Each structure stands twice: as C-alpha cells, then as structure tokens.
From TrEMBL:
Cited InterPro entries: DUF247_pln
Listed name of the protein: Uncharacterized protein
Keywords: Membrane, Transmembrane, Transmembrane helix
Pfam families, sorted: DUF247
Transmembrane segments: 408-428
Organism: Setaria italica
Upper classification of the organism: Eukaryota, Viridiplantae, Streptophyta, Embryophyta, Tracheophyta
Length: 431
C-alpha cells in the first residue's frame, strides 16, 4: 500500500514561497479534487459546476449505474490515502466520501474529454488554466482506480484505453510548458508519448499502465500527477535513473550561465523527447551542457513544485535501491545553479533553454528559493562531475577562452586599430 497511497505535500518543502507559497503550491485556487481540501469556503463556487459536470457525464450512461460502480470501490479508494488519522479524511462519512469520489471523478473526465460541450463549457474556458493547475497539485488528487472504473463510460477512440486518452490530454495541454523547442515540429513533442501508447496497446493491459510495466521504470500510476511525471520522463534512459551516490565523491562547485560561457561550455536546449534532461558532453574543442527547454509561468511553476514534492513522497517507498527518482529535482537544481544574476537568466533565454512570462528577477527569485528545499539527485551530480572533469583536463584552453571572452571588445578594438594602422603604413609606403 505504501507505493499506492496518496500523500500530503511534504513538510520539508512547505517553506517554498513562505505562507503565500503554501496557498499557491499546495491549496487549489478554484476546484477541490479529493478529500484534503474538500469543503473549503473559497472553493464552494465550483462545487455546483462539478455537479453539473457529473450530471452531464452520466446523462448517457445512467446516473445510478455510474454511481453504484463508484460506491462499490469507495472503500478501496479510501485506503489509497496515506494520512491515517488525518482529520480532513476522518471527518468524511463513507457515503460522503463515495459521493465525493463519484462527483470528482466525473468532473475530471468531463473536463479532460468533453470540456467543449454545453452547459458548462463557459465555466471550463474561463477557469481553464486555474483548473489545469489545480488538478496537478499533489494534495488535489483522487486514486487512479476511480478514473479507471469510470473509463468504461468514456467512448474510446481508435482502440485507445483510458491511460492513452489521459496522456493525450496531458500532451495537448502541457507540451507548451515542458517541450519548448521551436526548432522542432509540434508533432515531435509527442514522440515519447506515442512510443508509450504503442506499448500500452501491445501489453494487453486493460488500464494500459498496469502490472505489465512494473518490471520497467515506473509502477501503476497513483493519480494524474503521477501519470504526468511518468509521461514526461518515460523515454529517459535507465542510466539516468540509477543512483550510485553512496560510493562516489562529488565536486562541490557552482557555475552560473555566465561562468560556463567564460570557460567554453555552451548551453543548449535539449532535443530529447523526454523532459528533465540534463546532459553534459565534452566536445572536440569545447563543452556543451544541454537541458530540456522550459516555459515558466504560474501553471508550470506549480506543476514543477508538486512534481518535486511527489518525488520526495515516493523516495521512502522506492522499490529498488538502484532507483534515484529525483530526476525533476535534479533538473531544477541544475537550472537554479546556473542562475546567480539576472544576466544568467538572460543567457538561458538567449540559448533557448528558458522562456518565461516572469521577469528575469522573478525567475531568478523562484529558482533560488526553490533550490534551498530540493534534494540533489544523481543527474545533478553527474552533470557537476562532467563540468569538473572538463575544467581539470582543459586548463590552458579554458584560460585562453576566458581571456578572449572577458576582453573580446578590447581585442576587437585593438585589431580594428591595428588594421587601420596597417592600412595607413601601406598608404605611406606607396610612391
């Protein structure tokens, strides 16, 4: 049960953003999903919309049929929540809990697959970004088994199962944040998901994400946030997930984007079809550090914080000692390391690694505060080791590059003057 339970937002990360951060990254802003924030006063307005969505979802199937199905699995769903003795959950009677699972599950599927149908399309459109942010909060989840049970009432297209449909929804709505590479065609952002969907259909697993994947690098999803992380990192090579930290010593260095430019390490946007990629390579002349491109706004910031929180909650229940698990945290830690000033943020924008509707100062403040609470994962240390090795093996090349980088304008000015003087001397020598 440890691996399938839905956890509270970890206490170790609650300092992010201070008191305001607790509301921004933990508490939903418009809609409560699940028991942790059920009944909050500021979310009451959406309860009517949820009921309308549930009624619309069940209109073709028969309300009682769908309701009975969810009520029959409500006990299993309740056991998916880890907080034994949690007052918010304990206060809910079994019937009230089951009704909540029924309404919230119908609402989620209606929002994801039928959000353009009346009579609630206007409310979905006006609150769309806020709803999208809320459904990926760690404390705003319902068990996957509830969505699986409701899936039989969703018309499937082209043989897709519920996991396929949800992943398609995630790609359509999240690719703009986590697959930002304007040099690629939009369809290429779907590559890792398409590969996953093909495997889902071949696995003969009714959910498409069940035990047939347990031997791989991810178990059955707990909830939508877990499925989001799974889809984002599914194509990541196994060597980037391994933890070899216990038997190795790592350099304690910190290099900003400007520092890397000075020593000849070029920042680039990664072209890998998965997110959270951090890859440092030693090129024939110089080095290269590539990272997955990111579009940062309020929705993406909340998702990133909650993905890091999910990694913390899953760390204690890792099924393998070789699994690191902190791939998103490592990626965020590297990005934060690269930012010491607004000029560093500007360099990341210029290199296509970062795009944001935050100002440079706001972006810098977000990452520098966030990194104080993150655990450094294997990919972070691997990148640091590569940079350290590059600096140790190429000291002369680095010294020459740093001199040219820091004195480029002076060198250009001197060469310009020299070329003028040469021209003058040549003119004077002519008879």
């Amino acid at each position: 049960m440890t691996q399938t339970r839905i956890q509270r937002f970890p206490q170790s990360l609650r300092g992010i953003g201070g008191g305001e951060g607790n509301r921004r990254y933990v508490v939903p802003s418009v809609v409560a999903i699940g028991p942790f924030h059920h009944g909050r006063a500021h979310l009451h307005e959406m309860e009517e919309v949820k009921l309308m969505a549930a009624h619309r979802f069940c209109a073709d199937s028969g309300v009682q049929v769908v309701r009975d199905k969810i009520f029959s699995i409500a006990g299993d769903a309740r056991r998916c929540y880890a907080a034994t003795g949690d007052l918010q959950i304990a206060a809910l009677e079994d019937a009230e809990f089951a009704e909540m699972m029924f309404v919230d599950g119908c609402f989620l599927l209606q929002f994801m697959f039928k959000g353009n149908e009346p009579p609630i399309v206007g409310r979905f459109l006006s609150s769309g970004p806020s709803i999208l942010k809320d459904i990926f909060l760690l404390e705003n989840q319902i068990p996957w088994l509830v969505l699986e049970a409701l899936a039989k009432y969703v018309p499937m297209h082209d043989g897709l199962v519920i996991a396929d449909l949800v992943l398609n929804f995630i790609v359509d709505h999240m690719k703009g944040y986590f697959f930002l590479d304007r040099s690629r065609k939009e369809d290429k952002a779907r590559l890792c998901f398409q590969n996953l969907l093909a495997k889902c259909r071949c696995a003969k697993d009714p959910v498409g994400m069940g035990r047939s994947f347990s031997h791989g690098d991810h178990p059955n999803p707990k909830h939508l946030l877990g499925l989001l992380r799974f889809g984002m990192t599914r194509g990541m090579p196994s060597q980037k997930r391994r933890s070899e930290l216990s038997n190795r010593s790592f350099p304690r260095l910190s290099c900003s984007a400007v520092d890397l430019a000075q020593i000849g390490v070029k920042l680039t946007a990664s072209r890998t079809p998965w997110f959270a990629d951090v890859n440092c390579q030693k090129k024939p002349i110089f080095g290269e550090l590539s990272l997955s491109p990111l579009f940062l706004n309020h929705v993406a910031a909340c998702c990133l914080v909650n993905l890091a929180a999910l990694e913390v909650t899953e760390a204690t229940s890792a099924s393998s000692s070789e699994s690191d698990g902190f791939v998103v945290s490592s990626y965020l830690s590297v990005l934060a390391m690269l930012m010491d000033s607004e000029e560093d943020v500007h360099q990341l924008r210029v290199r296509g690694v970062l795009c944001s509707n935050f100002s440079n100062n706001q972006t810098l403040a977000f990452f520098k505060e966030l990194v104080q609470y993150l655990r450094l994962g294997y990919n972070y240390y691997a990148a640091m080791e590569e940079i350290d090795e590059y600096m140790r093996r190429r000291p002369v090349r680095i010294a020459v590059h740093r001199f040219i980088y820091n004195n480029y304008r002076t060198i250009v000015a001197v060469l310009s003057i020299a070329s003028v003087l040469v021209g003058i001397f040549k003119a004077l020598k002519k008879p």
